[in-house]
Amino acid sequence: MDYSDNKKEVGGTQSIGRATEILRVIAASDGVGFGLGEIAERSGIERPTAHRILRRLTAESMLVQNPLTRNYHLGPLLYELGLAASSSVPAQQLCKEALQELSEITGDSAFLTVRSGHDVVCLDRAEGHFPIRVLNLGVGQRRPLGCGAGSIALLSTLTDEQVEKILLKNSTLLAARAEPPINEFMKIVAQARTQGYAIKDAPDLPVRSLSMPLRDAYGNGICALSVSTLTVREEQNHDKMVGALKRMTETLALKIRGSIMFKDV
């Protein structure tokens, strides 16, 4: 048996994992990009190694570097590959329709979010007719899991062990966003499981979000539907919003399961 081949395979696999982690870190920069030092710190990858990976990803057009700021940004090849990629949510068109209906029923901004590694990503959003619109998350934006109601809803579908592992991984990022410590956050997730929905106030604005997970036939979280509005408006329409979320997630889950079963026949 040639052990050198195994070593090469392990090394190559590790490099892929590191490159993927770097791409996730940069994707979470909200478009401003990160420099080498920030990328190394956030990814936990040693600076020389991170530099080598960044150079190769840039050469492959997966990243571009701003010559003025020296920050790295996602490159055109990722966009091109994304056009050919399958949706991370089955029957995403059904989700889009449900999101639009949810925003029409509540009159507020509605969001579709999905888990991606240790992050949560906004896949779509719809704006309601209420004149004051809360657009706290743009399509394609990433946040560390633990940030936002949609994130809490998705975490509530996992085991306590899985949640603790994710929160520990994201602890520095969550602390920077003034999120509660892990022991308090575990209580928030437990409450979301009991209630069937997550509720979260913005740390610096009079804004509140409600979110409910969408589960597959086995109880696993597929995605989350959320509604964000002014806190006083949520207090006035709490039952209506929770009811709308419940109807939308239950109906959508049945439609998605049906579409998958039909596709597999």
From TrEMBL:
Residues 13-76 form the HTH iclR-type domain. Keywords: DNA-binding, Transcription, Transcription regulation. Signal peptide: none annotated. The keyword DNA-binding applies. Transmembrane segments: none annotated. PROSITE patterns: HTH_ICLR, ICLR_ED. This is IclR family transcriptional regulator. Residues 77-262 form the IclR-ED domain. It comes from Advenella mandrilli. InterPro entries: GAF-like_dom_sf, HTH_MetabolicPath_Reg, Tscrpt_reg_IclR_C, Tscrpt_reg_IclR_N, WH-like_DNA-bd_sf, WH_DNA-bd_sf.
